[in-house]
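hey
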């Protein structure tokens, strides 16, 4: 996982396969998450307009909803004893009912002189998810998970090979960002300066590039985007331009997201410009081909004005040939200029995998070939390679 570069109704319904929790067979796709017990109800699961009614249904005065929202989203308070504007007699009850613990840290590892922190969280049902907090000059990015596991079955990805356990709730997604904001406030991430002590730097960028295919958990993922961007104290008050939604190419969901009116950045995990190879590397390509995914990405740009990122994991002797860089450049230019940016990513290999990163000279040639086509291209700055940095590695080691 790594930091992100930037700063209409769906088409015909998708036929969903039968849910499974077992390790996927080659090419198997799982769209519908297995049914498991629901996570505890949480304030962040509800739209701001709904919260007053929820609080009243629990027998409390409706204005308590605004107080709870202020403590959670704006003050980043977790301890009920610090919520002194709530009556002591009902304080613990309100927190138990609407601000329950959703994530329990089971592993925390650091890298890059403490400027990268990777967390493995245990959820209420024992499922494990991961998130990574990274400080860069002038900004802090968190890479978050949207599912426990993943049903997209990409063979070079540890999460994809683990299969899909379940979808996360909106609040479970949001809580990863709130936890990170608290960690910053408490000075847990290295690299800050004296100014951070006076006004702690908040999370500025959120990338849905952790475990899971967020657009396969569409309702919860979009709900989380809205909680992150709702003005404080109804939400965290983040700029939508600081959010990036990554997808392997669920075309109907990309079009649906374009119609939401939220200018988040779209990152399309392409990894191959030709259908023959992409069918193997990204099995969703058996449903929606390369050209269909790129067309949807271009439509997203036209609807939002946000430049699309193309993610391309460079895998030694698999997808790093110069002719594939040329083909990618040609396909992107065929859809216009100025709408896209390519992020080649040195593959972070998983233990025992046959997949590994491209040689440095091959990587540089790939980049130069794309730039020769006029495609803005930046090698992604990978983080945490010494702490099981690839998605799914830490969860696999923890489970």
């Amino acid at each position: 996982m790594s930091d992100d570069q930037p700063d209409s109704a769906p088409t015909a319904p998708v036929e969903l396969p039968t849910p499974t929790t077992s390790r996927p067979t080659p090419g198997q796709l799982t769209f519908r998450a297995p049914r498991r017990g629901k996570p505890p109800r949480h304030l962040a699961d509800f739209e701001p307009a709904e919260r007053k009614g929820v609080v009243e249904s629990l027998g409390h005065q409706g204005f308590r909803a605004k107080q709870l929202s202020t403590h959670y989203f704006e003050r980043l308070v977790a301890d009920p004893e610090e919520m002194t504007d709530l009556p002591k007699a009902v304080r613990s009850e309100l927190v138990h009912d609407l601000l329950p613990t959703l994530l329990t840290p089971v592993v925390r590892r650091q890298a890059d002189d403490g400027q990268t922190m990777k967390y493995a969280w245990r959820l209420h049902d024992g499922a494990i998810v991961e998130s990574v907090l990274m400080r860069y000059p002038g900004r802090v990015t968190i890479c978050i998970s949207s599912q426990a596991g993943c049903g997209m079955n990409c063979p070079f990805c540890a999460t994809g090979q683990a299969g899909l356990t379940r979808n996360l709730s909106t609040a479970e997604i949001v809580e990863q960002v709130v936890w990170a904001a608290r960690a910053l406030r408490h000075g847990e991430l290295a690299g800050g300066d004296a100014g951070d002590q006076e006004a702690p730097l908040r999370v500025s960028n959120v990338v849905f590039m952790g475990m899971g295919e967020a657009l396969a958990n569409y309702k919860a993922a979009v709900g989380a985007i809205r909680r992150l961007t709702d003005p404080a104290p109804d939400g965290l008050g983040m700029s939508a331009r600081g959010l990036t939604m990554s997808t392997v190419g669920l075309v109907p969901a990309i079009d649906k997201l374009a119609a939401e009116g939220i200018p988040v950045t779209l990152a399309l995990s392409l990894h191959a410009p030709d259908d023959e190879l992409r069918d193997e590397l990204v099995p969703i390509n058996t449903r929606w081909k390369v050209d269909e995914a790129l067309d949807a990405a271009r439509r997203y740009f036209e609807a939002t004005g946000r430049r699309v990122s193309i993610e391309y994991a460079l895998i030694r002797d698999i997808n790093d040939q110069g002719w594939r860089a040329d083909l990618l450049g040609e396909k992107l230019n065929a859809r216009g200029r100025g709408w896209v940016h390519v992020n080649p990513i040195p593959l972070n290999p998983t233990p025992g995998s046959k997949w590994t990163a491209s040689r440095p000279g091959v990587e540089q040639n790939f980049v130069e070939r794309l730039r020769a086509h006029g495609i803005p291209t930046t090698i992604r700055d990978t983080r945490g390679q010494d702490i099981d940095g690839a998605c799914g590695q830490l969860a696999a080691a923890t489970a």
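Residues 1-21 have pLDDT under 50 and may be disordered. The radius of gyration is 21 Å.
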